[in-house]
Design a protein that fits this description.
Chain lengths: 237, 269
Amino acid sequence: MSTIQPRETLDRQINQLFDEVLVMGSMVEEAVIDSVEALKKRDIEAARRIYVGDQLINEKRYEIETQCLTTIATQQPMATDLRIMAAIMEIITEMERIGDYAKGIARINMLMSDEPLVKPLIDIPRMAELGLDMLKRALEAFVNQDAEAARKIPREDDIVDALYNQVYRELLTYMIADPGTIDRSNYLIWVAHNLERMSDRVTNICERIVFVSTGEILELDISDDEMRDKFYEKITE
Amino acid sequence: MKEKYNKIVPKKPNNGKYAIEARQLHVYYGDFKAIKDVNLLIERQKITAIIGPSGCGKSTMLRAFNRMNELVPTAHAEGEVIYHGTNIYEENIDPVEIRRRIGMVFQKPNPFPKSIYENVAWGARMNGYKGDVDDLVEQSLKNAALWEEVHDKLDQSGLSLSGGQQQRLCIARTIAVRPEIILMDEPASALDPIATLKIEELMRSLAKEFTIIVVTHSMQQAARVSDFTAFFTMMDDRAGVLIEYGATKQIFTNPQHKRTEDYITGRFG
């Protein structure tokens, strides 16, 4: 006869939730890749599909949230288990927002209609790639409860920020050189901005992973601290 | 006989932060060490929950606070329990006086086979209460949130009440002798969920006046009702030890010891 484990049901539900978070992660990842790819190819039809498909990501988020609430209500998780539940609810909210960024990129693609890109996309796909890689590793760190890995990931946000600044300056020169490109350049700045925000969301996710391990909310966004320090200096001058 | 005992006189005005304190306390049943080297400070007018697996010495710890363990012939304690600056285990301390000032409510409601009124009045009369007993009964039943349900049948037997009402009657009986501390040993484990929640709400309102120490098997109850939680567990020699003590919200969301985490998340115990 097999022995009865005291928390088999709770462990099973937590593992299911981890799986669901990973599923949602791959949905979001696909949406971001597709939105940038569609923009690159100026594929309006694909953009439309991504735009509509965002609804599925939202539904997944509510499905996971409901599962979390059910686990909280029926299993009364405590300590780390409880923090995992709280973290999942935050993480799925962050991922839903990342899905919204993909939808935003698809929307920009649709708005640009048949106008060509102001420049070939090089740094923008790179930003998407870096951000998604951060997301992927953050979710791995989450299911493995690896706070150390989660602490390191946000440092890479600086690279994404640097790429964003580069894209921004480059497009600015286009606009200055030829005001006729203002609209099209602006569209791409929005796209880059969406991708820059994506890696900020990953930083938030990493904060939650650290919280699961330590019980403390630690701000991992270093650029935030620098900004705050600068403002503080100004105020106290 | 009673004359040989010294009265416990508060050495300081009764406004210290702590109501009672265990210092390097060991309790034995014969050769068996039931609890080992416990140091525990209980805050005044707060609810402290003692949790832990079966056999970890929770009830022994609770009973050590009013020398109730002495009713077990082989039991003896080493170390100190400091109450009003005095070690209650000193030779000249009257255990009956201690048990009046540190009252107890048990797992199974145990009203006397007497009227509801007598259940509440008896202890106070035994202690030579000089005031208006009718008032005392009414006030105690009100404080125990039972008055509304029984005020028109005070002469009925206490045993005619439901389980939850009987437990509240026992609480009324305990508070009628004006203790400072109330020890509760699984006070709601024999009650249904609604009666349990009533007892828990009652505990919260009693904590405005009394210090409560409660032993419970229900972690949800400890989490719901207490301000502080002490987690006990057994060592290899089966002696109970205090592993972690802290604010309840911290113990249940972010325990510092792995053993506490394992227990409250159901990994052992």
